[in-house]
Amino acid sequence: MTRHQKRLSAPNAWPVERKTGTFTVKAGAGPHGEAGVPLLILLRDVLGYVDSKKEARYALNEGSVLVNGDAVSDEQRPVGMFDILAFTEREEYYRVFPEEGGRLALTPIDADAADGRLGKIVRKQDVSGGDTQLTLHDGSNLRVEDASEYATKDSLVVDNETKEIVAHFSYEEGALVTAVDGSHSGEIGEVDEIVVTAGSGDNTVVVDTGEDAFETIEEYVVVIDEQFVDDEDADDSDVSSDDEADATDGGDDE
Fold this sequence. Notes:
This protein is mainly β. Helices cover 10% and strands 33% of the residues.
């Protein structure tokens, strides 16, 4: 397996400039699978806090950069949708959120909103001991004694410190959702109708945005909390790589 990642072949969700250089850093093993963005890209290409991999390693070794409440020292650690990125010394907090085209961006949030992260339930299975294991969209697992109220496609808020479930949002008509992929990525609205497709085809969902409506497949929507709408209203200037294009030389990863 190659240790290199060409910019042109990087996942569409990665917020990197495609033609400013040949290579970019390759994501390490971790959550979110291939869609996970290496932390170095966010620090260097998006935020412009460092200019090189060496500077990123030095900054991360200070222990003041947190992902979902945990200090991170690996610049290749994958960061993905709905993760919480905290810079404790700067007192800056961001949520990773999809924007138009499915590209991930950093939405500034306040400290209170950074206490927990959102996760979509993608699998639910019984495990030994009578408990139930819930698998979230980023690959993490939660073990609960009573899972009767939880279903796949529901969303949970997990406390970053205790790793306990602190909120539950059901996937149903009337639920507030955002599209995280497809042509409507980044749009927010309420589920107006869930259309069940017979056979092996994907179910679809009609989402009312208040001004318009769109239809997409169930896989592309995630139930969210009202605070996501508050974040959008409070700050419409998500940080993306286009905003910080001059912060990186676009060359190598050293």
